[in-house]
Amino acid sequence: MFGTSARSFDPMDEILGINMRNALIAKYNPRSAIERARDKVAAKVALEDAGIACTGTVAVIDDHQKLANFKPRRDMPDAWAIKPARGSQGDGILLAVRREGNTWFKGSGAPLPEDMVMHHIQKVVDGGFSGDSAAEDAALIEPLIIADPALSRIVPEGLPDLRVISLHHTPLMAMVRLPTLESDGKANLHQRAIGAGIDMETGKITRAVVKGTPITHHPDTGVLLIGFEIPGWKRVLELASKCGPAVGLGYCGADIVLDVNDGPLVIEVNAHPGIEIQNICQEGLKARIAATGEDFR
């Protein structure tokens, strides 16, 4: 059985603070594994080598020779996502949902002509989103994920994703991030997406918040969130339990999406998962980690 049993919420005894989280990372996450996880291309290779289902790959453009030979009208599908390999917090991600001729379109309807697409890819390769202006990066181009209908009916637009925090092979805590109109269709909690805690045993949403304010229904669609069961929950936990060991991390956060055709797919592994999930779930990570046998002394 995955996960650990929850106990009553006690801020003094159960909350995992930032210093304790950093100590876990220092103990279980080697620098080489952290670097591998930070690079989406390298992490994807490690995950796929371990037999873990990931999102597909259209192309990886990691130098200017490949950039010069790349032709979007020839090489890109009708719907796609461009991601900086070393980007963070969604910076530099560009999505297209459809194509007409040699022009693609965002979900908002804004056009993306071929020269704009090439300019964005070049900016990625030049390191414009890597957080280090002196470092070149790679552009990872993937087919656009189409959300499982059970999840897509909850949100007005965008792609919900799941964050599962694990220690070694044990999933500890999970939430689903649900886009809103105010978050511009992005599953980003800092941009007012919804964070919803998930019961580890049942896969059902137990609590949902927007910027710290509890809610029961999605503000845009009116769909009841509390009690909603995540499709394919056991498979989600199986994938999450394998991600850290595959990349070389002992403590990590796996980001997973539910595709309409392929089911749960890993999109990223985070070597420094945040601790805000505890506020969303109203449960502490410390007790769940201790239940695995970890000694905090």
Blueprint of the fold:
Blueprint (H helix, E strand, L loop, with lengths): L10 H4 L3 H11 L2 H8 L1 H10 L9 E3 L2 H6 L2 H4 L4 E5 L9 E3 L1 E3 L2 E3 L5 E3 H12 L13 E5 L5 H4 L8 E7 L2 E9 L15 E5 L6 E6 L2 E3 L17 H15 L3 E9 L3 E8 L6 H5 L3 H6 L7
Antiparallel strand pairs: 1-7, 2-3, 2-7, 4-5, 5-6, 8-9, 8-13, 9-10, 10-11, 11-12, 13-14
Please mark out the parts with pLDDT under 50 across 5 or more consecutive residues, or reply none: 5-9
H/E series:
HHHHEHHEEEEEHEHEEEEEHEEHH
End-to-end separation: 27 Å
CATH topology of the largest domain: D-amino Acid Aminotransferase, Chain A, domain 1
How many domains? The number is 2
What is the CATH class of the largest domain? Alpha Beta
Helix content: 25-40%
Computed CA radius of gyration, to the nearest angstrom: 19 Å
For the biggest β-sheet, the strand order reads 12-11-10-9-8-13-14
The beta-strand count equals 14
CATH architecture level-2 label of the largest domain: 2-Layer Sandwich
Can you walk me through this structure?
By secondary structure, the chain is of the alpha+beta class. The protein folds into two domains: 11-55 and 147-290, ATP-grasp fold, B domain (D-amino Acid Aminotransferase, Chain A, domain 1, 2-Layer Sandwich); 59-143, no CATH class. Helices cover 29% and strands 24% of the residues. The protein is built from eleven helices and 14 strands. The chain has helices at 11-14, 18-28, 31-38, 40-49, 64-69, 72-75, 114-125, 149-152, 233-247, 277-281, 285-290, and strands spanning 59-61, 80-84, 94-96, 98-100, 103-105, 111-113, 139-143, 161-167, 170-178, 194-198, 205-210, 213-215, 251-259, 263-270. Strands 12-11-10-9-8-13-14 form a seven-stranded antiparallel beta sheet. The chain has a four-stranded antiparallel beta sheet with strand order 1-7-2-3. β4 (98-100) and β5 form a beta hairpin. The chain is globular, with a radius of gyration of 19 Å. 42% of the residues are buried. Residues 5-9 have low confidence and may be disordered.
